[in-house]
Amino acid sequence: AAGPALMESKSKEGDYKSVRAAIASKLETDDYDDGSYGPLLVRLAWHLSGTYDKESKTGGSNGATMRFDPESGHTANRGLGVARNLLEPIKMQYPWITYADLYTLAGAVAIEEMGGPKIPWRPGREDKLNEPNPCAEDGRLPDASQGAEHLRNVFYRMGFDDRGLVALSGAHALGRCHMERLGYVNPWTPAPTQMSNMYFTELLDTKWTQKKWWGPKQFEDPSKELMMLPTDLALVQDKKLKQIVVEYAKDQDKFFSDFAEAFSKLLELGVPFKE
Length: 275
Ligand code: DDH
Fold this sequence. Notes:
Elements: H1 4-9, H2 16-27, H3 38-49, H4 80-93, H5 99-113, H6 148-158, H7 162-169, E1 176-177, H8 179-182, E2 186-187, H9 198-205, E3 209-210, E4 219-220, E5 227-228, H10 230-237, H11 239-250, H12 252-268
Antiparallel strand pairs: 1-2, 3-4, 4-5
């Protein structure tokens, strides 16, 4: 019978189903936050991709440039080394997958495993070498202290419109802020490992007041257990964006289908797929 070594070498090139299963098996944990690495993997895929600039066609997931200095050390990317390390054994087990495909697939699988919609995903990203340094410049991801104009600048630069901007922001149903990373604390919703439209219902139905503390400006609910960033509240302060928030708060199915489309597009920005 085939020994273990032979079995491993049998991981067939292009067997993304096995990679998906390997990612899914990594999510549940007693060692991290709310019992899942899922939200962190979603943030990894987003920060890998959200540097895209449609004019210069630079940034984006292709190349997996976040592996390299200085992008790995950008303030916005704090904490994501944990996610990259988590996926490293999977890269070792399936060496034929590129890091760029692996990191984006991990985000898609995490969304699906946490009860979200199926995310259309296809392979085709390449890994760039670090010579010359391919990193995206700092400052391309959104700054949480700002408002709607900044959000539009960032998301329009990637090629999204207001609906894409609001749909993607709904990922904050998941996960939480960590003081040691960017200075903010707490989750956005009471179910941070369950994909839902709860980010939008919380935005509309909860009374958000500015947290009184020494940390950066953030908002809290009456229980003081949930939070919103200034950029989150910008979605209900802007009339046009708020209409979309209301729509998603009322209709989770519509949110899920718009999110799946926008997240899939996000992961593909700037990727030179071969037809
Ligand atoms: Fe986010 N996000 N995000 N975010 N994000 C943070 C955490 C998570 C902003 C700031 C923060 C998106 C948009 C924005 C996730 C997904 C997405 C944290 C806390 C900050 C700060 C990090 C930490 O302390 O660990 C800002 C600003 C924006 C914006 O204005 C648009 C988008 C579009 C997504 C997406 O996935 C499509 C997820 C998931 C997390 C939770 C991570 C975790 O470890 O938990």
